[in-house]
Amino acid sequence: MLFSKNLISWYLENKRDLPWRSTGDPYRIWLSEIILQQTRVAQGTPYYYKFIEAFPTVFDLAEASEEEVLKLWQGLGYYSRARNLQTAAQFVVEDLDGKFPDNYKDLIKLKGVGEYTASAIASICFKEPVAVVDGNVYRVLSRIFGIDTPINSTEGQKQFKEKANRLLDRKNPADFNQGLMEFGALHCTPRRPLCDNCPFSSECVAFNRIQIAYLPVKLKKQKVRKRHFNYLVFISEENKTILQQRKGKGIWQGLYEFPLVETYSEATAENLVQEEAYGYYSVPSSSKVDLFNIEPVVHKLSHQHIFTKFWIVNCEELPQQGISFTEAGKLPVPVLIEKFIDTFDF
């Protein structure tokens, strides 16, 4: 109880003035939590404002097209979050008459809502005593209580969840949960934590045993996959180009990109034209094909690094239906494509 009391006291004195903290509206809290999944507050806040402006209610979000949502999400990455966001909004509107579930058990049933997000919404909006556990919480608890179980193991996730629930202030779960996350974000940071001015330094196992740099423990990540993308940027005499929508369950599902030829290694002009995918696009033999960037653009995702070359294909007519450059700029595209479009300046 002393831990939770000290934590909440620290939070009330040090919390940041964030837009979603001025409301108890579950729609806005849910929106902020989805945006902030795997996204820093500084990066996510402008997106929160954009979504609230475009979709002030869950009804507005539910009625929007997928392309509108993806375009607004562009640049945040992990686009499945955006698709799940809209799916959940449609469920809330169509099946729940626009009212969000008021408890953890039903919140976690929403598409894209996991244990952390359901706990956050349930505790902040409905005062349900369920603890949140995220990266910040893992770090704070592992250091203060000296827990060295890997945080990305099944055993570790269970242990930290149980610990957080035991510490939880059941009368004030909202401030406790937000305080624990905020303490990890501002005070007990991954590097250079403020140990000399910490309300828990006297009891912190990591501080007293000089183990700050070693906690929390995390199992090694899986091997990063390297991929080589070659985009064919068609440009016709009518100033039109080709963009195609990505299908399937891979990265960037639902976003648009130029015709893609993926190779096993970095491509040259000579071996590019020999690829089966290159032939699939029926590039006119009279076309002039020039490499735009000599050095591949490296785009890093969590488990794969994409090495990209853009090949400019000037031709009289496009081999398939195209769109104007103006229309191309309106479609949702991966940030990799967006940066190229900005640089190339059609």
The pLDDT mean sits at: 93
Order of helices and strands: HHHHHHHHHHHHEEEEEHHEEEEHH
Shape: globular
The CATH architecture category of the largest domain equals Orthogonal Bundle
Quaternary state reads single chain
Q: Quick one: CATH class of the largest domain?
A: Mainly Alpha
- Domain module tally: 2
* First-residue to last-residue Cα separation: 62 Å
Radius of gyration: 24 Å
In total, the number of strands is 9
Q: Which fold name corresponds to the CATH topology of the largest domain?
A: Endonuclease III, domain 1
Q: CATH H level of the largest domain: which superfamily?
A: Hypothetical protein, domain 2
Label the structural class.
Answer: alpha+beta
Number of helices: 16
Helicity level, as a percent range? 40-55%
Strand content: 5-15%
Given as residue ranges, the uncertain stretches (5+ residues, pLDDT < 50) are: none
Largest sheet: 5 strands, mixed
